[in-house]
Description:
The chain has seven helices and eleven strands. The protein is an alpha/beta fold. The chain has a single domain (5-286), classed as Rossmann fold (3-Layer(aba) Sandwich). It is globular. Keywords: Glycosyltransferase, Purine salvage, Transferase. Its EC number is 2.4.2.28.
Amino acid sequence: MSTPYLAVIGGSGIYDIDGLKDAAWQAVTTPWGDPSEQILTGTLDGLRLAFLPRHGRGHVHSPTDVPYRANIDALKQLGVTHVLSVSACGSFRDHMAPGDFVIPDQFIDRTVNREKSFFSKGCVAHVSLAHPTCTVLGGLAADAARAQGVTVHEGGTYLAMEGPQFSTLAESRMYRESWGCDVIGMTNMPEAKLAREAELHYATVAMVTDYDSWHPDHGEVDVTEIIKTLGANSTHARGMIAGMPARLGADTGCDQGCATALDFAVMTAPDKRDADLVARLNTVAGRVLG
């Protein structure tokens, strides 16, 4: 395996990392438009790092409007091999408390207004999403978070909702009781799907800020407590990221096929492929399209 290059997609509170060398903001253009923001690149203890503010600096993109395809393409252009998605979430489980980190290994995608694939008419492909995250990368992140004193839950189902409104009480109860979801957020789909199509190792770190509306005390949550939790989560996330260089080596032992997801995925015959679309796919799928 090549030397790993880690990207972190998250909020503005997580990329102020002590010890980041040669830090610079880079503008990257893609065939899918501009990414959410310029990308901060640098090196931390020998590990190449890239930070992409998902909503842009100043939080200008709603979850629906985030340019997910451009974000993943831009990271792949830079040579990124591993992506940690760091985001806030609500909890459906009493034991997944505010301040805890959850490393989900499954998603339910309830988003409806987002482009969810790089492929389309003229070049059709189907990748496996049975196991949509890299559990090796997720395990390394969990270990790094625990070293910060965070309670970490490995495994679980993340419900991705469209937003920007939060769920109703009826929806929250359904997701928790009937669907068996563990946490809820608005950003990890189609991000995980696109990362798989781009053959990137992808894992989510979902930071619990509060309980979703199913919880009997939901309406009594003190906003100041939520803000306090958000601040603590950001601090712990920075510490977790700082711990990744010691853990993410050249051989992570991933056997899930993240880096070879397209090996048998492209269905369209070579002589039937749309040349313009194939050109747009060069960064994410050039390995198999030639």
